[in-house]
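re the bet — no i am not wrong, look at it urself. input seq straight from the record:
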Amino acid sequence: MRSTVWGVARAIADWWDSFELWLTQLAFPLQVVLAILVIVPLCWFVSAGLDRLVDLVADARRR
């Protein structure tokens, strides 16, 4: 089990390293556009999820 988890973690780390290398080799304007297309929606979904979670906890505490 431990070796399987380590193997998966290593594979993810290797994939991330290759992705990071690809990203840093792009021209700066492309990096900015890619960041905007990925990071802005990701931040929006995370903030919407946290807002929903806070609403649920607040409603539960009021009861």
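see?? The chain is about 90% helix and 0% strand. told u. also The chain has a mean pLDDT of 92. so pay up
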